[in-house]
UniProtKB/TrEMBL annotation:
Residues 1-28 form the signal peptide. It comes from the Bacteria. Residues 32-391 form the Leucine-binding protein domain. The keyword Transport does not apply. This is Amino acid/amide ABC transporter substrate-binding protein (HAAT family). The keyword Signal applies. Transmembrane segments: none annotated. It comes from Roseateles toxinivorans. Keywords: Signal. Belongs to the leucine-binding protein family. InterPro entries: BCAA_transport, Leu-bd, Peripla_BP_I.
Length: 430
């Protein structure tokens, strides 16, 4: 045997041992629990999708930093997978199959109630057909009330307050503003936007029958680049207030157009406190733009300040400043369900999550709530807040380094925010 061949054989033997060692280490690592985020990461609402990803990434990181999910066979980490639906329900269904193929037992989505409805229907059929590959759907912002009413599903859990809960809080504030006599309703033309306008009209009529609704308009979702014509119509109507469920760029561009035409009206919004909206309107939004959410950075408690500071430390760029307590709650309730079930099997976890009470303060968070077993709607407090200049009373933090933040004007506790449901849930036998 030549010296060269002896060297080659020794090198190959060493390499084989090294590979065996690597294989042994890889096998020793616990298999991650895969969560599949299906969201529009390209197209007109890509900024909203990326904002969701940052929230979910931070939530999973916080779980993993404390050791992961505690299970009988040992702790397991969470792994967040990204799937781009391109803001399209058909594409979401396509990537759902890819997510399940990658052994994701938990699907996370929220930006679009129409997409959420399609995913619920698809998972109902998939879970019945393929019980060995079942998956749960966790919804953080698809708020069409039908999703936990007539379309409710054992496989679907919603962690955002649905549209009627948000509308009730906003219209309670509207009821107290005696100066408003005319209001304009505008929204995105799909199931959620249509519902907001229809239900908004009903609530206004019940709470303030003296207010005239001077406009009721739907526009194509994600396709309007210039809202100036809409803003001019609102201005010409004489409206002193605007009610909208618009989100993403459809909200930012609407508010920006209102500023450009000099529209002097209060905006009652679901999402007016982020994704560029405060910076777009600036001083014109002070005391005029209102938002409703389960939490906001100026809640004012020490726990809230610490929670928000931790997020800003993780994502320091001003444009990344968009944090939602409900997304943290969603991941934590899921983890608590797994640990209660002592399993990651979706049906067992679903049953364990039903009725689960969550107090995020014990985990360095801020949020509290309970997962209602009857319809899988998370019951939680709500805050209505109004845009003010940073540094004024109640506004310690601004949004996205805009110089403007939001101050609480109404707190709605969980029992007040809760609404009845019409869910007749069908539960699996096993």
């Amino acid at each position: 045997m030549t010296p060269t061949s002896r060297f080659t054989r020794r090198a190959l033997a060493s390499l084989a041992l090294a590979l065996l060692g690597l294989g042994g280490n890889a096998q020793a690592q616990p298999e991650p629990i895969r969560l599949a985020m299906i969201e529009g990461l390209s197209g007109p609402f890509a900024n909203a999708g990326e904002a969701v990803f940052r929230n979910l990434l931070w939530a999973t990181e916080r779980v993993n930093q404390r050791g992961g999910v505690k299970l009988p066979g040992g702790a397991r980490p969470l792994e967040l997978l990204r799937f781009d639906s391109k803001g399209n329900a058909e594409e979401a269904l396509s990537v759902l199959r890819a997510a399940i193929d990658q052994k994701a037992g938990y699907v996370l989505q929220g930006n679009s109630s129409a997409t959420a409805a399609a995913l619920i229907d698809a998972l109902n059929k998939h879970n019945e057909r393929m019980p060995a590959q079942r998956a749960l759907f966790l919804n953080y912002s698809a708020v069409d009330p039908a999703l936990t009413n007539e379309k409710c599903s054992f496989w679907h859990f919603r962690f955002d307050a649905h549209a009627d809960m948000r509308l009730a809080a906003l219209t309670d504030v509207l009821r107290t503003d005696s100066q408003i006599k005319k209001i304009y309703l505008i929204g995105q033309d799909y199931s959620f936007g249509q519902h907001v306008l229809r239900k908004g009209r009903e609530m206004i009529a019940a709470k303030r029958p003296d207010i005239a609704i001077v406009g009721d308009e739907l526009h194509p979702i994600g396709r309007i680049k210039d809202f100036i014509p809409y803003a001019n119509k609102i201005k010409a109507s004489g409206a002193q207030a605007v009610l909208t469920g618009n989100w993403g760029n459809d909200l930012t561009l609407l508010i920006k157009a209102a500023k450009e035409v000099g529209l002097d009206a209060r905006f009652f919004t679901f999402y007016g406190n982020g994704l560029g909206a405060p910076a777009a309107i600036g001083e014109a939004g002070v005391d005029r733009v209102l938002a409703v959410a389960e939490w906001h950075p100026n809640v004012g408690t020490a726990a809230s300040d610490t929670f928000y500071a931790s997020f800003r430390q993780r994502f320091p760029r001003p444009e990344d400043d968009y944090v939602h307590a409900r997304m943290q709650a969603m991941v934590e309730v899921l983890v608590a369900g797994m640990e209660r079930a002592k399993s990651v099997e979706p049906a067992a976890v679903a049953r364990a999550m039903e009725g689960l009470t969550y107090d995020g303060r014990t985990l360095g968070g801020v949020h509290q709530g309970v997962m209602r077993a009857a319809d899988h709607q998370f019951i939680q407090p709500l805050y209505v807040s109004v845009m003010r200049k940073a540094g004024t009373p109640g506004v310690r933090f601004d949004n996205e380094a805009s110089g403007y933040g939001f101050r609480t004007v109404r707190y709605v506790d969980a029992t007040q925010a809760e609404q009845p449901h019409q869910c007749a849930m069908i539960r699996p036998n096993n």
